[in-house]
Write a structure and sequence with these properties.
Number of strands: 2
Oligomer: single chain
Length: 196
C-alpha cells in the first residue's frame, strides 16, 4: 500500500514551513473525549461498539463513500472553509491506512509511540481536492479492508495491548479501533450522509 506522510520530530531550524490551506481552519482538537462521551454532531458513542465488532463497523462506515463519490457535488466544497466530499473521502482512506499501521505496531511491539500525523498538512501535500473520485473510492475500500482485516484477527489479551500517541494519549488496540471508528462515522456526517 501507499505510505502516509508522517511528521517526525526534528530541529525547528531544519523544519520546513508546514503546508496549509488558508481557507481551512486546522483541526488540532484532541478528540479522545469521544471514547467516553457521545459526539453531539454525528451521534457516535465508542462504548456502543464491542471490540469484536470493530471490523464489521469499519466496513459499514466506509462502504457509503463509493456512492458519495459518484455524486455530482463530490468535488465541490459546500463553502471555502469546508472540505468537499472527495477531500473527506481521501481523509477517511488515509485514516484507515494510518490506523491499520498503528494497530499492527501495537500487535507487534510493546507500547510503541506513534509518530505525529497532521491531517491538514497531508490534505494539502497530497492535493486531496484534485484526486480522481473513482480512484479514491477504490483505494478507500482497499484501505478499509486492510483495517478491518487487522481488527478481525485480534483476539484475547491482544485487545489490551497498548500504544501511545505523540501527544501522550494511551490507547489499547480496542480503544484505538473505537476512536478510529468515530472518525469514520463523523466524516460520513461531514460528507452529508444520513446516519439515521
Amino acid at each position: 500500500g501507499r505510505s502516509l506522510r508522517i511528521m517526525t520530530s526534528s530541529s525547528p531550524d531544519a523544519a520546513p514551513e508546514p503546508m496549509v490551506d488558508p481557507a481551512i481552519t486546522p483541526d488540532d482538537k484532541d478528540w479522545t473525549w469521544t471514547l467516553r462521551e457521545r459526539c453531539p454532531d454525528c451521534g457516535f458513542l465508542a462504548t456502543d461498539v464491542e471490540p469484536a465488532d470493530i471490523a464489521r463497523h469499519v466496513t459499514a462506515s466506509t462502504a457509503p463513500w463509493e456512492q458519495v463519490l459518484t455524486r455530482s457535488d463530490a468535488t465541490a466544497r459546500p463553502e471555502p472553509a469546508t472540505w468537499s466530499p472527495l477531500e473527506y473521502a481521501c481523509h477517511v482512506r488515509d485514516v484507515c491506512r494510518l490506523f491499520e499501521q498503528r494497530a499492527r505496531l501495537m500487535l507487534e511491539q510493546d507500547a510503541p509511540t506513534f509518530d505525529n500525523w497532521d491531517q491538514d498538512e497531508t490534505a494539502v501535500a497530497d492535493r486531496y481536492g484534485e484526486q480522481d473520485p473513482a480512484v479514491v473510492a477504490r483505494e478507500l475500500i482497499e484501505a478499509a479492508a486492510g483495517l478491518s482485516g487487522v481488527y478481525a484477527s485480534v483476539a484475547g489479551e491482544d485487545w489490551e495491548r497498548t500504544g501511545i500517541r505523540s501527544n501522550g494519549s494511551l490507547f489499547t488496540v480496542a480503544t484505538l479501533g473505537q476512536y478510529g471508528l468515530h472518525d469514520l462515522v463523523h466524516r460520513l456526517w461531514d460528507g452529508g450522509v444520513d446516519l439515521g
